[in-house]
Amino acid sequence: MGRLQGKTAVITGAARGIGAVMAKRMAEEGAKVVVADVLDTAETVADIKSAGGSAIGLSVDVTSDGNIADMVATTEKEYGSLDILVNNASIFAALQPKPFLQIDNDEFDKVMMVNARGVHQTTKAVVPAMMRAGQGKIVNIASGTFYYGPPGLSHYTASKGAVIALTRCHGRELGDKNIQVNAIAPGLTESEALQGHAGFDPARAPTVASRSIKREMLPEDLLGSLMYLITPDSNFVTGQTLNVDGGKVNL
Questions:
Q1: 134: left (phi > 0), else alpha (psi -120 to 50), else beta?
Q2: DSSP state string for 108-161
Q3: Is 156 a known active-site residue?
């Protein structure tokens, strides 16, 4: 415990699901956490505070430069620094899997704008604050779909492929600024937003069967990888994507 003492962490898309679980773990480890989302962040913030942690919630659209700039300014004003960014905001559970022939341009563009451009915009906005702090850790949440191309999610898969590409490029460009940029590529994760989503039922059993570890994946399965990438353990690691899927894909 306490491995993030004195650090401030911003996590987008943290009102529920994977983001909320990550926010709570970072707070448990001593970080002051900024919970950012277009959804209501009150429950996640309350959970962190009730457990003795420090957190504030902000309404943030990761496609809005104004929202993101306000987030950075508020973070530095409230907590004095911005040391960690987790780019978790994404459109996934709201999607209904369908053949790419049925995906219209508006849906494709919306997914790419939030999932890929949002990473670009948010990362660009936090870099000056991290440079003022003298260091930074950025973790992008990608997806294992990039490695095997599941049917029905071509736009989502393309957006997460872009996240992996951005991770490599940003890691290369920020290395001399003492900022490490890495990604986690989760497998199909039974977050609260996905539970009961019938559109993903056809993928559930085959996904578990394809894993070396034969069980459903939970948000908590990502926490060990997250902690590695946001602590000094990974100070000489950047531009990398860590696949966490129970052994479905062997890279």
A1: left
A2: HHHHHIIIIIHHHHHHHHHHHHHHHHT-EEEEEE--THHHH--TT-HHHHHHHH
A3: yes
Question: Is 249 domain-assigned?
Answer: no
Q: Which of 79, 147, 148, 156 is catalytic?
A: 156
Strands 179-186, 54-59: pairing kind:
unpaired
Domain-located, residue 210: yes
Grade residue 12 by pLDDT with cuts at 50, 70 and 90: very high
Phi, psi of 65 (to 5 degrees): -60, -35
Confidence of residue 205 (pLDDT cuts 50, 70, 90): confident
Domain hosting 44: range is 8-244
Q: What is the pLDDT of residues 65-116, one digit of tens each?
A: 999 999 999 999 999 999 999 999 999 888 999 999 999 999 999 999 999 9
CATH number of the domain that residue 186 is part of? 3.40.50.720
Total domains in the chain come to 1
Which tokens sit at 104?
A: 């219209």
* CA 239 – CA 123 distance, rounded (Å): 14
